[in-house]
Design a protein that fits this description.
The structure is a homotrimer of 242-residue chains.
Chain A (H helix, E strand, L loop, with lengths): L3 E5 L10 H9 L3 E3 L17 H14 L5 E6 L2 H11 L4 E7 L16 H13 L3 E2 L3 H8 L5 H8 L5 E2 L1 H4 L14 E7 L23 E5 L5 H4 L1 H12 L2
Parallel strand pairs in A: 1-2, 1-3, 3-4, 4-7, 7-8
Antiparallel strand pairs in A: 5-6
Chain lengths: 242, 242, 242
Amino acid sequence: MSDTYVLVHGAWHTGREIEPAAEHLRQLGHTVLCPTLAGNRAGDDRSHTGLNDAAQSLCDFLHEHDLHDVRLAGHSYGGMVISRAYDMAPERIRRLVYVNAFVPLPGECLNDMVPPVYVGLFDSIAAAGNGAVVLPLPIWREAFINDADLVLATSAYEQLNPHPYKTFTDKISLKQPIHEWPVGKSYVNCQQDTALPHSLPWHPRLSERLGLFRLVECPGSHEVWFTDPATIARAIAVAGRD
Amino acid sequence: MSDTYVLVHGAWHTGREIEPAAEHLRQLGHTVLCPTLAGNRAGDDRSHTGLNDAAQSLCDFLHEHDLHDVRLAGHSYGGMVISRAYDMAPERIRRLVYVNAFVPLPGECLNDMVPPVYVGLFDSIAAAGNGAVVLPLPIWREAFINDADLVLATSAYEQLNPHPYKTFTDKISLKQPIHEWPVGKSYVNCQQDTALPHSLPWHPRLSERLGLFRLVECPGSHEVWFTDPATIARAIAVAGRD
Amino acid sequence: MSDTYVLVHGAWHTGREIEPAAEHLRQLGHTVLCPTLAGNRAGDDRSHTGLNDAAQSLCDFLHEHDLHDVRLAGHSYGGMVISRAYDMAPERIRRLVYVNAFVPLPGECLNDMVPPVYVGLFDSIAAAGNGAVVLPLPIWREAFINDADLVLATSAYEQLNPHPYKTFTDKISLKQPIHEWPVGKSYVNCQQDTALPHSLPWHPRLSERLGLFRLVECPGSHEVWFTDPATIARAIAVAGRD
């Protein structure tokens, strides 16, 4: 069956870096689109773009392409964005797929779910960067893309873009907690993802905030988009189907 | 080496649904039997059948077939039944294999190991169902058979039978705690099994009640019997061997 | 790229038992050495050899072979030894790889990270064994080498040697806590390793003491050296590369 997927990238990324996974998902017969959110496009204002701006740009994208019955997948920070987008415009969305993604309670910001040591680091980087945050290479290499060799880790790092930090500190507005939403929900957990430490993990700590949800797991780091796009595509297809 | 396995189904099942896994286990050279417990047979009384009735029917089965050196595997609710059966008649059993199964402390009932939200749900379903409990399809599809496509999830659901709820609330009688039993014990953990939430998991929460035990893991949901019978058969063979 | 690996065995082992994995690692293009630590050699004094003696013998080995840019991997007890060795002679070491290994805080001994029931067992065995501790076969078979058949479990057991218990009770001297060390660090977690119970696990409980580190996981028990040397070799190569 041909389904419609929209894949929403994480912080520091654009839609282009997840295109290899999208292409594998298309080979499974699906229609797949990978928009780039407001705040991560070339020339976007990194100092003032917030979570609502990013979510609005996603809703606009769904509207402009007149998409229906969308399986909306968000990676990492993208979990904040798809959550806010569903709150704003649920009618186009058939299932939400969180891919090692943040699942906020009403009123939480992304930083509320992150170890304090990361928040302190981001604070200082953003203060020095005019509101834009970048990820230090050693953290990227060891904790985000631990399954890559150094060549791939480095080339992937060079594709990242400075991220508008306001999107990490804006508290999300949700009319209902997510576990009450009457929509299908799935969580894809990449098992070696240590972007959040496993003592404060993605799953089940954040996944179970979805209420009734479907768990899918696969091997891989937080950046499996680069290291094994075929595997993450298959996992998303299993998570996104009816 | 040819060993004798008896596979004990979980709630809502009969021996027939685990026959595909049994057949794979036979292809590995073993003798395998899949009895259906009292309470889950066509025409059984769903209102009054309790845990002792189910365990007695298993002991009767072992006796009638004059089985010895049995590797006795129980799935889910089947963990209650094999535990009670070993307490009643240990002499025929060489090793106990718990397959994402409940491991009770003396005096516990199955519901004591389940999240309160499930207990409340089961209470209300059983009250409306004359003592029989059925599993709502959305929970089955998302949390029990998350690795199936919708066609398989639905066809498997149609094979289930109403379960006598008294077996979930009867407190088990055990002369000794299980960790003291002088018999080989194994635990098979299907890694994507979310029938119990991973914040309140099968393993290690329940498995470690076995004391010294052998851990075997494989990919799959709680209903891997339907989705990957070859894999669960191999895992049981590794768990059940000497 | 050809890198230099030194693989440091765990308690009860010598370098010889990890040679099959070393050979796989050599086939990936690397130089690999497997010294046997002081205390585990034939004829070594099991009553008085302590952690410093073992670590000194490792430093001597690195010096005698004039090794540089070493990827130093330690298994289990070997984590204590590579930690002490780095503290003594960091200049030859490029990366530390802990393979389901102990990661001590300054002043801790190995026994401080082990369940009290094991400490009590080891105490009584060592008291009866003139300071040498051996592992009871049932624990070895079920909790250490759960993925082996009985023939392999038994033949592997016969290769073990009595271990100097003082190395488990000597408190480690470290000038700095490990998480502050300016060297690359990786943790390899064999997923079915129940030598430590999963309620008190190797990862993330001990791994996260490394601070920023690279996680690599693979299937297998604590004794994957015997049961799947190719898999552990590949995992070490991914953990040890730059």
